[in-house]
Structure formats: C-alpha cells, structure tokens
Amino acid sequence: MATLITLSGPDGPLTHVQVPLGIGVQPQRSFYACPEFMRGVEDDLPKWVTGKLNAAQTPQEQMRSILLRWISGREMVWERHFKDLMPMGTEAWEMKTADLRLFGWMYRPRVFIASFLGYADDYKGLKPKRHYSDAVQRVMTSRNSVDLDLPKFTSGEYDALV
Q1: N or C: which end of the chain has fewer CB within 10 A?
Q2: How far apart are the C-alpha atoms of 154 and 161, rounded to whole Å?
C-alpha cells in the first residue's frame, strides 16, 4: 500500500492537480486524478462543446472553474456542484458543472480523487447514452485498482467531507 504523495510522484499512477490561485490564496482542498481522468481531460475535453444547458462557459472553462472552486475552498453547493451517487454506501461522488461530470471518491475529508470525466448530456434525457449506475461501478473499480493505504475512502456528513 502507498500514500497519495507516493502515488502522485513522478512514477506514480495519480496526478496531483493544481490550479493557479490568487495572490495570498492557499489551497484548502486537494484534487488528485487517476490516469483515465487525465486521458479524458487531454483527449476528450478539448473536443466537447457547450451542451443542452447552453452554459456561458465552454467545457474547458468550466473545468478550470470547478477545480478553482474546489481547491480554493469556495462553497460547493450540494447537488449543484457536488453530489454523492446512489447507492450512498458506495461512496462514489460526482463534481458537477453544466456540461461536465467529474466522477470519483473522497479519500479523506477535503481530498477528492477523480476516476474519470463524463459529459453531462450523456447522462440526461429519457434515453441517456450513459447511466449513473455504470459510473458508480467504474468509480469502485478504479478505487479498488489504486494501491492506496487503507481505508481507501472516507464517508461521513457532507459538510465534514467537503
């Protein structure tokens, strides 16, 4: 088993994602990403356009905005920005924007590990292309494959975790 610091080192499978913060602003939360998430950011995100909600920001701008919100410690409104997926005992979460779904889990309070990136429109409508139950399974599979120190995830009240 290994720690986040070890796993996010130069040869590790996780990436410690950081964004430039304003002068005097210190990180309040941490964001780590699995290889599948990073592939989605590099390969898929640049091709995505604004979806059904017709957001003012592009998906790329939304990614930077949600990462900035998370890492800087700004408010994450439950269900609007961050939500636990059903069934709740799986401890799979989604970080949300109008067009993006960042699926992952809470390793420790204020420490999110992103498993994979989804396009919000794929999960909406009467006949969605993708299903949240599959997303939960992918998060659990991803979490089980990472050689993290136990426990690999934390649970608890929303306010205590976020």
Answers
A1: N
A2: 8
- Kindly list the domain boundaries of the chain, sorted by start residue: 4-161
Given a contact cutoff of 8 angstroms between Cβ atoms, the answer to whether 65 and 20 are in contact is no
pLDDT tens for each residue of 96-128: 999 999 999 999 999 999 999 999 999 998 899
Dist. CA 7–CA 124, nearest whole Å: 34
Query: Residue 146 and residue 42: Cα distance in Å, rounded?
Result: 21
3 state SS for the chain = CECHHHHCCCCCCCEEECCCCCCCCCCCCEEEECHHHHHHHHHHHHHCCCCCCCCCCCHHHHHHHHHHHHHHCCCCCECCCEEECCCHHHCCEEEECCCEEEEEEEEECCEEEEEEEEEHHHHCCCCCCCCHHHHHHHHHHHHHHCCECCCCCCCCCHHHHC
Give the number of residues written for the chain: 162
- pLDDT tens figures, 54-67: 999 999 999 999 99
